[in-house]
Design brief:
CATH topology of the largest domain: Collagenase (Catalytic Domain)
Strand content: 25-35%
Number of strands: 15
Order of helices and strands: HEHEEHEEHHHEHEEEEEEEEE
Largest sheet: 8 strands, antiparallel, barrel
Strand order of the largest sheet: 6-7-8-9-12-13-14-15
Bound molecules: zinc ion
Number of helices: 7
Number of domains: 2
CATH class of the largest domain: Alpha Beta
Radius of gyration: 23 Å
């Protein structure tokens, strides 16, 4: 419940903060269809990304802190790849590498340069591609044969960015805990082949997150929802029969289960780790009855969103965020009833609670809205 309250609070706060501020940089360009466009830079888990730093004394944080944040950000992506099974189907030499080595100086041997408040001709040339950036990432060289790139992350010095339409705010403030890590997570996310995906660390408007005072959200890749919807992870949702469609829902469940549901029915969806199917449970708060039905998944796909995530340069796998699950439950009489689970949906200002939808005489029935979801 505590988590739910936090969630509601966040939605309200985000509404307040949903002004149109500057976007952070992206590798951009949806019109270039070449194989490498927007694809991840670094492959082969046995290889190490050499990183050097060019730090301005007035950046706002010292070298030690910046280095620590870069290390944490790469570690978080590493953890994400492992737990979500990203690229797990590829041989090691084609998996993304997250191994890094911090060089003591920039001498040409580096693969990635972090410019913290520092600029030069190269930075300025690439900066022209972005509008008023707080940070951006640029790939300067690509070796297609060895699946390796060179490039940089540029970060604005503290309090140097004027947000569009907003005055009187010193932005960015790298001293707010989590801000630099969040910004680095985002930019490194581009390096691993992610486009912008709203409500995640890859959101287009990072100013929204950096101005928001919640350390824990800044330390998450799945900020408000999952960037990569984990199919092998355990999932649990609990909710109530949706009031708006209650009569039809009761009719539908009478057909499915062969009996009437009590008025105060609670509905839950549970998916065990590595299982494809959900168990759909209906019970009342007195536990006087319980139906367990298996919701068999027939298809899983993304909808309304076309963002490319973890784009692999070999292209054989191009994940997209997914949020619609199709399937069916088998009723007591052996008939199949189609169901749709809408999950991981955002309206740009927050996450919709997952919805379970059924069909009665061809008409869409919202069966349940879930208020509690756990990854
Ligand atoms: Zn971006």
């Amino acid at each position: 419940m505590k988590k739910y309250l936090l969630y509601v609070f966040l939605q309200i706060s985000l509404l307040i903060f949903s002004f149109n501020a500057m976007g952070s940089g992206s590798t951009g360009g949806g019109d270039n269809l070449s194989r490498d466009s927007g694809a991840a830079w670094y492959y082969d888990t046995s290889k190490t990304i050499k990183i050097c730093f060019s730090i301005s004394p007035d950046f706002g944080l010292n070298e030690e802190t910046i280095k620590k944040d870069v290390q944490s950000a790469f570690k978080m992506w590493d953890h994400y790849f492992l737990t979500k099974g990203i690229c797990s189907e590829f041989p090691d030499e084609q998996k993304f590498t997250t191994k890094i080595e911090l060089l003591t100086q920039c001498n040409g041997k580096e693969d990635l340069t972090i410019y913290a408040g520092v600029t030069n001709d190269t930075v300025e040339a690439y900066k022209k591609n972005f509008h008023n950036p707080t940070a951006f990432v640029a790939r300067t060289k690509l070796d297609l044969e060895n699946l390796w790139a060179k490039g940089f992350i540029w970060l604005a010095k503290e309090k140097s960015v004027i947000l569009d339409g907003i005055t009187g705010i010193d932005f960015p403030d790298w001293n707010i805990p989590g801000n630099l890590t969040a910004m680095l997570l985002h930019e490194i996310g581009h390096i691993y082949g992610n486009e912008h995906v709203e409500e995640t660390i890859m959101m287009s408007d990072m100013a929204k997150l950096l101005m928001y005072d919640n350390y824990f959200l800044k330390m998450r890749i799945d900020t408000f929802r999952e960037l990569y919807r984990c199919n092998s992870c355990e999932k649990r949702y609990t909710g109530l029969i949706d009031e708006s469609d209650k009569a039809n829902t009761f009719l539908l469940f009478a057909q499915i289960s062969g009996h009437n549901l009590p008025n105060n029915s609670i509905i839950s969806l549970r998916k065990e780790a590595n299982s494809k199917n959900y168990i759909l449970s209906l019970y009342d708060d007195l536990n006087s009855f319980r139906d367990n039905l298996t919701f068999e998944i027939t298809d899983e796909r993304s909808s309304k969103e076309s963002a490319s995530i973890f784009k692999h340069i070999n292209g054989s796998q191009n994940y997209t965020t997914s949020n619609i699950v199709y399937g069916f439950v088998v009723g007591k009489n052996g008939n199949k009833f189609p169901l749709v689970l809408e999950d991981n949906f955002s309206n740009g200002n927050g996450l919709f609670p997952p919805r379970l939808i059924g069909f009665l005489d061809g008409k869409k029935v919202v069966i349940a809205k879930f208020y509690k979801g756990d990854e």
